[in-house]
Amino acid sequence: MIGNEATTGGLLGTYLKDRRAKLDPVALGFTPQRRRTPGLRREEVAQRAHISPTWYTWLEQGRGGAPSADVLNRIARALMLTDVEREHLFLLGLGRPPEVQYRKDQDVTPRLQRVLDALNPSPAIIKTAIWDVIAWNRAATIVLKDYSTLPPDQRNMLRHIFLSPTAREAHHEWQSVARSVVAAFRADAARAGAMAEVKAMVDELCLLSPEFKTMWRDNDVHNNTAVVKHLRHPVLGPISVEMSTFSVDGRSDLNMLVFNPVTATDAEKITTMIGR
To answer: Do the strands 237-248 and 251-261 form a parallel or antiparallel pair, or are they unpaired?
Structure first.
C-alpha cells in the first residue's frame, strides 16, 4: 500500500513539474529574471493557486498525502490546464476523474454533429448537465422533438416533459417517467454544481405545473434508469427505443443520448420518415 501511494505521488509530482515547466513566467506577470529551469517556480504556482508553497512543494515531492479536490482545482487553474489535463491531474492525485462542472458555452463541433448524423435512424441528442438540448440528428426530430422549432432557451428536456402536451401523450405511464426524470435531473444539476443556474427554470415549472412542484418537493435523487422507452407517436404509431448514455470527449458536462430502435420494424418506421 505504501509503495502504491509513493508511486502515485511520484507520478503526480512529475506531472506537476512538467506542466509548470511549460508556462511562460513573463506572460503570466512574473519578472523575467534569470532562471535555472524553464517555466514557473514552485512558489509562483503556489501563489497563483492560493495555496502554501510548502504544501505545493510536498505535492511535487510525493509527500503530505492525497490533496483535496479543491486544491487540485486551484492547481489546475494555476497551471492553465485543459479539461483533459485537469482530468489527468485528478486521476493521478485522487484516483478518480473530477466531478462534472457546468459550462455555459454550448458549442458543438462539426465532428460531433457528424457523429449524431451517422447514427440515423437511431434518434440521438447532446444535452448539457442541466438538460438543455444543444444538438440532435434527423431521427431525433421525428421521434423525440424537433428542437429547431424552439428558441434556444426553451430547448430543455425537463421543460418538454412537463409543459409539452405531446410529451404527455407520447409516454406510456407518464407519471412514472416524469418522476424518474425529475430525480435524475436533480442529481445531474447538483453533481455539476449548477443548482443556482436551474433555479429560475425550476421556479417557473413549479408555477406552471402542479405535478412538477409536487415531484420536485419530494427531493428524490437517482440516475435515469429507464432504459427502454415505449412511445406513442402520432404518425409512426407505437414505437420502442433503448436509451444509452455516453460521455463526450473533453466535455464532462455533456452527454450523448442515443435511442436505438428495439425492433427492425421500429427502425424501418423511422427510416421511412427520414426519407420523406
So the answer is: antiparallel
Let me know if 100 is exposed, middle or buried by CB neighbors in 10 A (0-12, 13-18, 19+).
buried
pLDDT in tens, 147-206: 999 998 899 999 999 999 889 999 888 999 999 999 999 988 888 878 889 999 999 999
What confidence tens digit (pLDDT) does each residue in 36-66 have? Answer: 788 899 999 999 999 999 999 999 998 877 8
Residue given cell 442515443 in the structure block? 258
* Inter-CA distances, 1 with 4, 7, 61, 65, 218, Å: 5, 10, 18, 13, 43
Residue 227 has pLDDT above 50, yes or no: yes
Strands 251-261 and 228-233: unpaired
Q: What are phi and psi of 231, to 5 degrees?
A: -115, 155
**Taking residues 105-110, what's their average pLDDT?**
77
